[in-house]
């Protein structure tokens, strides 16, 4: 199987990614699609987040990254079927094909910043080796309204065309940063925690997806109200690059059996090696990975 065939089998067509959305992604580095999920679906996914977080507590997200003050859950598709519909969001799949060509699942992490927490330094999720060397697409799926006071994501429109900045150590692969030009040095903020003069805070109603080129300069902000801002960060990467969570290492029999033929290809769990073992459940613990180093 290959990506175009997988998307065809999932019913993704040219109409699922409009010219206006393509221009926004190319020019600004992001766009928003509202009404992807109903309020009832959002409530179910938010409640499942709360259930999983209650089970995992401070260890939540340990398979990828633990963030103090922002509860996380990772490896979600092996733990529950509740988020399976997120794997079939057509604009996300079409936009990922536009950016990446042949692609696969990169990561899937639930996040909910607590009151007074959630602020991040400005960063790009991934590096790049030349101007339009896109590595990852990221979809922020909102289960609650994302408002100005519950920790919205801040983005710097158009900054995906600039140099990578503050890339997390786990995402650098074999990339070494090149010497910056004088223009690029002048562009780097003195304080990555401070607001950027060109940033905007993205707001969106529950049931939306904010689709981002992961080379965009962005960061989380403080949840000042304490209201829930439960989201799923769903990301895809080129097939020649590593996954954030290596799905084959965590694969459960239940997940494998419920996937349609196209989905194992996009998750990079197909074909299984002869005699490959699968876990019966996702209860086994795994060592936490470092993030910024």
The fraction of residues assigned to DSSP E strands is 5-15%
**Low-pLDDT residue intervals, each spanning 5 or more residues:** 284-293
| Number of separate structural domains | 1
Q: How is the CATH topology named?
A: Jelly Rolls
Determine and state the CATH class.
Mainly Beta
Describe the fold and architecture:
By secondary structure, this protein is an alpha+beta fold. The chain has one domain (3-267): Jelly Rolls, CATH 2.60.120.620. The chain is built from eight helices and nine strands. The radius of gyration is 18 Å and the shape is globular. The termini are far apart.
Give the helix/strand layout.
Layout: H1 3-9, H2 19-27, E1 30-33, H3 39-56, E2 72-73, H4 90-100, E3 103-111, E4 136-142, E5 154-155, H5 182-187, E6 200-201, E7 209-213, E8 218-219, E9 231-238, H6 247-250, H7 253-258, H8 262-267
Antiparallel strand pairs: 1-7, 2-3, 3-9, 4-7, 4-9, 5-6, 5-8
Summary?
With 293 residues, this protein is of the alpha+beta class. It has 8 helices and 9 strands.
Features:
single chain, about 290 residues, alpha+beta, Jelly Rolls, six-stranded antiparallel beta sheet, three-stranded antiparallel beta sheet, about 25% helix, disordered C terminus
